[in-house]
Amino acid sequence: MLPTARLRATTRQAASAEVPGQHDRGTMRIQRRQTLKRNGSAGRGRTEPRTGTGRRLATGLLAAFGTACASLGIATVTASTATAGTIHCRAYESISCISSTADGGLDTGYRGVVESTYLVDDYGNNCTNYAAYRLRRNGVPGSMWQGLGNADRWDDVARDRGVPVDGEPAVGAIAQWDSQHVSYVEEVASDGSWIKVSESSYGPITIDGSTYRSSSGYKTITQGTDWPDNFIHFADQTDEEPARPVTSAGGTIATGVTSGGTLYMATVNARGHMVRRYLANGKGTWSTWATIGKGFAKGTHISMPTLASGRLYLMAIDATGQMKRRYVKSNGAWSTWAIVGRNFRVGTEINTPALASQNLYSVTVTKAGKLVRRYQTNSRGDWSTWATIGGGF
């Protein structure tokens, strides 16, 4: 066997899914190819791994970035009866599973090139690089995904930037493992019992005594078997058409503009998810819809006031009667949700004008039918206590 042969592994229908850092466990049918070929490189084939300037560039960039993905040790593929999921496509030292529909892969448009902070090996593989590419394609600004660091830190850094991180899968979310790996969620079962992910990985994997440096793949993962530790919701891709967010039940579509001229639109869709999209500088094309909150009721009214300073707020009452708020930071990231009050009537409209003093003044109705108000007392965003200003509502 040639030590530089390109391998493509496919599983039988009940084959095991890959464990980040261990790669394809399961019974595999290995088809050997005697030519290494880098997809996205004009089809150039070669019989030896790249050396020289190109390889040093990729290696140096990876070293500067840190160990980005799983495969920290050498993984060995052995026969197994595990049934963690189904591997639809797995290619070694190739990006073909995420750049082509051949052999069960997906054509995501990814070509594995080094651009900006996308750091790849000679074949274009790197899990964080691929995940960042998909986020950019979904309209996520670079300030949100650049500098996230190693894959095992993505959840922590994302939280610091106001990105929702939880255990609920969603199409367009980033699946993250603390064992240093990230994948892109392509599909989610209606009951949440399985997900399909596409991915890239940089790191050694040994098959039949030969070691390969990277892989790309497309697979199904079932609950309880190598399930991700977190799902990071930079820009979830909703199942509904944009026109379907609920309005007929009394909900609203709110809009607001930041000091930088970015126009935001927010509403609650039929699944109870708060979703938003934006139009940068008031021109160009709209971003895709992204989930920025969950647990809201149909008919939720949203308030999106903008202070004179340019800070854009979003306020709404969730399905439990809690009034919550988020705001857009100067770097374009959203803050985390904060609770402004409790025991409000679900579906009640919130009026929150921005005062000349650059503070917010919020008025709504409680579950008991009382009209109440609260306002910010200073530029730091501190609030007064709630006060009743009317009853019988």
How are the secondary structure elements laid out?
Elements: E1 6-11, E2 18-19, E3 23-24, E4 28-33, E5 36-37, E6 45-46, H1 53-65, E7 75-76, E8 85-92, H2 127-137, H3 142-145, H4 154-160, E9 165-166, E10 174-177, E11 181-188, E12 194-207, E13 210-222, E14 230-232, E15 254-257, E16 263-268, E17 273-279, E18 290-294, E19 302-303, E20 313-317, E21 323-327, E22 338-341, E23 361-365, E24 371-375, E25 387-390
Parallel strand pairs: 7-12
Antiparallel strand pairs: 1-4, 1-8, 2-3, 5-6, 8-13, 9-14, 10-11, 10-14, 11-12, 12-13, 15-16, 16-17, 17-18, 19-20, 20-21, 21-22, 23-24, 24-25
What key attributes describe this structure?
disordered N terminus, endopeptidase fold (from Nostoc punctiforme), mainly beta, 4-stranded antiparallel sheet, 393 residues, 2 domains, single chain, Neuraminidase
Describe the structure.
By secondary structure, the chain is mainly β. The protein folds into two domains: 6-232, Alpha-Beta Complex (endopeptidase fold (from Nostoc punctiforme)); 254-390, Fucose-specific lectin (Neuraminidase). Helices cover 9% and strands 32% of the residues. It has four helices and 25 strands. Strands 1, 4, 7, 8, 9, 10, 11, 12, 13 and 14 form a ten-stranded mixed beta sheet that branches. A four-stranded antiparallel beta sheet has the order 15-16-17-18, with no helix packed on it.
